[in-house]
Amino acid sequence: MPHKLMSMERAKPDTKTIRPFMLAIAGDSAAGKTTLAGGLVEALGEDRSTSICTDDYHRYDRAERKELPFTALNPACNYISIIEQHLQLMATGQPILKPVYNHDTGALDRPRLVEPKEFVIVEGLLPLHTKLMRSCFDVTVYLDPPEEVRTEWKISRDTKTRGYAREQVLAELERREPESEEFIRAQRADADIVVQFAPIEGRDDPPDTPLSATVLLRPTVPHPPMVRIVEDTTAIHLKMMRDDDERPVDALHVHGYAPDADSRQVEQRIWEHIGLDLPMPSHLGALGPGKRSAPLAVTQLILLHHLLSTQR
Amino acid sequence: MPHKLMSMERAKPDTKTIRPFMLAIAGDSAAGKTTLAGGLVEALGEDRSTSICTDDYHRYDRAERKELPFTALNPACNYISIIEQHLQLMATGQPILKPVYNHDTGALDRPRLVEPKEFVIVEGLLPLHTKLMRSCFDVTVYLDPPEEVRTEWKISRDTKTRGYAREQVLAELERREPESEEFIRAQRADADIVVQFAPIEGRDDPPDTPLSATVLLRPTVPHPPMVRIVEDTTAIHLKMMRDDDERPVDALHVHGYAPDADSRQVEQRIWEHIGLDLPMPSHLGALGPGKRSAPLAVTQLILLHHLLSTQR
Q1: Is residue B261 part of a domain?
Q2: Which 8-state DSSP code applies to residue B54?
Q3: Which of A59, A94, A97 sits opposite B99 (nearest CB)?
C-alpha cells in the first residue's frame, strides 16, 4: 500500500466548491516531470489529488505532425486557449472534459472527465507558456536537467517504453532544439522553483555518483525556512545569490555524493516543519527499484511543504 | 451556391467578444432536428453560424452502452455538467473543445475545436434538460412529431445511413420508450416553440398529403406579429388557446393539404417582416430533392425572424 496522507487537513473552504491548490511542473521532454508528479500524488493520495498533463492538448496526432513545419513543443501545435480555459475551470473547482493524447499510438483518443480535487498537479511541456496559465497556479516548478543528462533519460525512456530506436530519439531531439530553446526553456524564468540537476563544479566524482542538484528557490512565493533547516548540515547547503535577471534568489545545493543519512536529516526537518503528526512517506525520492535521488526527495518535500503546511 | 445572408447586420456588440444568439432545438431521435438546424445554417452562412449537437457528450461508446441499464437518452449516459459548462462558454463567446460521438462507428472520437460564431444552434436529445442549460438560450424549440411518424422517419434514416435493420430500430425504440417519456418529452414544456407535426383532426386526406403541423408559440418570448401576418389567408391560421398547463398560447395551424401558393404567401410576409432588403432564401422547407414541407418552412422563417429581425 502506498503511503497516503489521507488524514491530513488543510483549511477547508467556506462553500462546497473545491478551490484546488494548483501546482505546475514544467520542463522539456524526459526532464523528470512525471516522476516528480507521481511521487506527490502517491504521497497525497488519489482521493485528494489529481495530475493532468498539458501535452494532451495537442492539436494534431503523430501522423499529422509529420506534415507540419513545427514540432509538438510549439504552441501552434497545441490548443493553448483551451489549456488556459481548462486551468481556469480547474482553479475555480469545476470539472473538465480533458482531451487525451496517446503516447503509445500517437493518436488523439476520446476525452476523459477530470473532477477537481484538493490538489491539482499540472505537468507538461508548456504549462507556464502564457500569463493567464501562470496566473492559475499557486506554485510553479521548472525541471532543468543538463541537456546531456536529459538526452540519456529520453533515450532510455523512449527506446524502452515508446518503441523508438536510439537514432530516432537523437534525430528528434535535434529537430526540436530550436523550439526547446524558444518555448520550453523560456519558461524557466517564470518558475518559483527551478531544479537544476548538475554535477557540482570542481569535483571529479566516479560516474555512478548520484546526480547533484541546485534547487533555486525564488522569493516569488514563501518557502520553507531553509536557513534554519540546513543549519549545521553538510549534505545540503543554502547560498543566497543573484538570479539570471540579477534578482536575489536562494540556491539550495543538494550533493549527490553526500552520505544518504545526511540528506535524510534535512528531509526529516522539512517534513517536521510541515507540522503534521505523521511519519514521513518512505517513497520520496524513489526513481525505481532500489534507486533513490536525494535532490528529488528534497524537491518533493519542499513541494509537500507548499501543498500541506499548516503554518500558512 | 447556397443562399447566404452574409450582408445582413445584427447590432454589433461593443467589445470584440462575440455574444452569440443561442438557439436550442430539442427532440427525440429522428424528430427532424438536423434538417431544421441545417436549413438555418444554410440560410445564415457558415461564417456567421455554427451548429453543435449535445449527443456528442455521450459518456460511453456504443459497445459500453450495451452493458448498461440505461440508453443514450438518459442523462446518466451523458456529461450533463460539461454540456452546461460548454453552453455557458459558448454563450459568453468562448471557444470549446467539443467531444465527438461518431454515429457511424459508435465510437467516441478525438474532440474538435468550436469557435463561437454570431449564431450558435444547439440541437440534440437533451439541450433543455437542466435549468442552467435552458438559461443559456435566447430561443428554444422542441420538435414533436407523433410517435408513428417519428418511427417511420427513424427506420428510414437508420436503415439507409446507419446500417441498422428495421427490426433493430423497432426494438431500440421500444427499449428507449420509458426514457423518451421521462427525459426527452419532458423538455416539451420548456420550449418557447413546439412544432407538433400531425394530421389535422376531422379530415380524411389521401396518404401522400404533406404533414400538417401546429406550431405552438408560447408567450415566453416575443414572436413575429402572427395575428397580422396570417390575416386573410386560408393556408395557415392562428388560434389562441390554453396550453397543457392552462397558460394562454398561440397555436399556428399550418395545413399540409393547402395549396403551396397560400403557404408561400405567409412565408413571404414573415420574411418581409424581418426587415432585410434581400430575397427570401429559396431552400427553406426543403426535405430533399423536390420535397418540401410548408410547416418546416414556416418554422424556419419564424426562427430566422428571431435570429435576424432588425425590429428588436
Answers
A1: no
A2: G
A3: A97
How many Cβ contacts (< 8 angstroms) between chains A and B? 45
Which of B64, B57, B71 minimizes the C-alpha distance to B28? Answer: B71
The three-state secondary structure class of A246 is: coil
Does B126 map to a domain? yes
Query: Which residue of B52, B97, B102, B109 to mutate against A (max A Cβ within 10 Å)?
Result: B97
For residue B134, tell me if it sits in a domain. yes
Q: How many domains does chain B have?
A: 1
Answer positive or negative: Cα dihedral of A256, A258, A261, A266.
negative
> ipTM, 2 decimals?
0.83
Q: Determine how β-strand A213-217 pairs with β-strand A139-143.
A: unpaired
By mean pLDDT, which of A124-128, B94-98, B101-105 is the weakest?
A: B101-105
pLDDT digits (tens, 9 = 90+) for A47-66: 999 999 999 999 999 999 99
Check CB contact under 8 Å for B82 and A95: yes
Q: For residue A6, what pLDDT band results from cuts at 50, 70 and 90?
A: very low
Tell me the whole-structure pTM to 2 decimals.
0.87
Of all residues in chain B, the one with the smallest CA distance to A78 is: B113
Find the CATH number of the domain harbouring B71: 3.40.50.300
Span A230-256, pLDDT tens digits: 998 887 889 999 998 899 999 999 887
Domain that holds residue B81: 19-140
Query: Please, is A144 exposed, middle or buried when counting C-beta atoms within 10 Å of its C-beta (0-12, 13-18, 19+)?
Result: buried
Is there a domain that residue B274 lies in? no
Q: Where are the beta strands (DSSP E) in chain B?
A: 21-27, 49-53, 96-101, 108-114, 119-124, 139-143, 193-197, 213-217, 236-242, 248-254, 286-288, 291-292
Q: B58 pLDDT band (50/70/90 cuts)?
A: very high
- What residues of A are in the B interface, CB distance below 8 Å? 57, 59, 61, 79, 81-82, 85, 89, 94-97, 99, 107-111, 113
List the single residue in B95, B99, B110 with the smallest CB-CB distance to A82: B95
Lowest mean pLDDT among B99-103, B178-182, B295-299: B295-299
**Average pLDDT in the B109-113 region?**
98
